[in-house]
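Put briefly, the fold is written as integer tokens. One such record reads:
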Amino acid sequence: MANSGAAGQGLIVSFGEMLIDFVPTVSGVSLAEAPGFLKAPGGAPANVAIAITRLGGKAAFVGKLGDDEFGHMLAGILKENKVSAEGVNFDKGARTALAFVTLRADGEREFMFYRNPSADMLLKPEELNLNLIKSGKIFHYGSISLIVEPCRSAHMKAMDEAKKAGALLSYDPNLRLPLWPSAEYAKEQILSIWNKADLIKVSDNELEFLTGSSKIDDESAMSLWHPNLKLLLVTLGEKGCRYYAKNFKGSVDGFPVKAVDTTGAGDSFVGSLLVKIVDDLSIIQDEAKLREVLKYACACGAITTTKKGAIPALPNHSDVLEVLKGK
């Protein structure tokens, strides 16, 4: 059953960046005014991989870290969280990426990045662990790996190899405009691989950015539909999400919580969805089952906003059951 406690045993491979987020100890102040920062491991694809294993699924991370203390710390965090690090490379000449996060009083964020270049940008196609990539039932990725070469070519190769091996392609653009040379280039590159994905998740803000419309409605969402797509999801923060499949569409309510830090909420949502569908992809064609899975995913996202930092806040199955019982 889609809503049972059993997590998928098929391997989910997550590709992209892993970095250190520096999160201010006090919310609602600028970076300059923050009295101190907590060091928190992050990076959307890594967050997704750990979200999966935290819920009992199987995940591997593919990417590149600096051959420095932060890089080895991050590789250690993957292993501690039972994520395969067989696809991790280290770069002696570049640092692990850093991000300073400003937390507004409502838990929403702004970012300042230190990565020019950082190790994740320097992953080369020939460094990919293709056996690992081909063994995944789902291949998940974002768009930050499309910004510059050689990482862009590595991303394209990994995605193509996964598809050839029969994997479902899962795409969460995870728009971070400060990392792109321009908004136009960001939109062009994010959409350049759009038609390859089987499953796409965008936030309400990303929907506005990609469509150029301020309306968050069915018409706007369906303008992003493509013929190969099996499921399109639009997350709406505390309001839950909307879903669009070939034969049905609808919405699922969110869970009201006191948000402290929204970092990682979307990654938690995606990871929990992938865990639930990896061994039964027919779920995305069965509306009743899909709604149960999306309720579970919304609960995961909500829980993740109640603590600072992404990875420390990712829930386990019993955390999610508590929230689901309370509704």
Notes: The longest strand covers residues 58-66. The two ends are 20 Å apart (CA to CA).
